[in-house]
Amino acid sequence: MSKIPVPAIIAIVVIAIGLAIFSVVKTVSPHEYHPTEKPLVNEDTKWLRETAKRVSGDVTKLTPAERQRADKITRGYTTVALPLMAKETK
User: Fold this and answer.
1) How many C-alpha atoms does 5 have within 13 Å on its Cβ side?
2) ∠ CA 87-88-90 to the nearest 5 degrees?
3) Cβ–Cβ under 8 Å, residues 52 and 77
4) Is this model's pTM higher than 0.85 or not?
5) What is the chain's Cα-based Rg?
6) CA pair distance 88, 76, nearest whole angstrom
7) Alpha-carbon distance 60 to 45, whole Å?
8) What is the pLDDT of residues 7-29, one digit of tens each?
9) What is the DSSP string of 15-80?
């Protein structure tokens, strides 16, 4: 059986310690902030708030086109979102 040279063992240990330190620093250090592409309050949200206020949260007062747009914005949860937004805007 051949022996592994001492310098090779030292090099392997140094690389292992370096990788361990790198992974700890990468995990513990604060991550960069990447803002979302779309703002949290966009035109759809503004429209939904205004509509909720206008109809006082009553989904039955929406026109078919408004209901379709509201369903698209809320992903089908218009009956839940509209009354909540109406309360929020009062």
Assistant:
1) 3
2) 65
3) no
4) no
5) 29
6) 20
7) 19
8) 999 999 999 999 999 998 888 77
9) HHHHHHHHHHHHHHSPPPP---SS-SS-HHHHHHHHHHHHTTT-GGGS-HHHHHHHHHHHTT-HHH
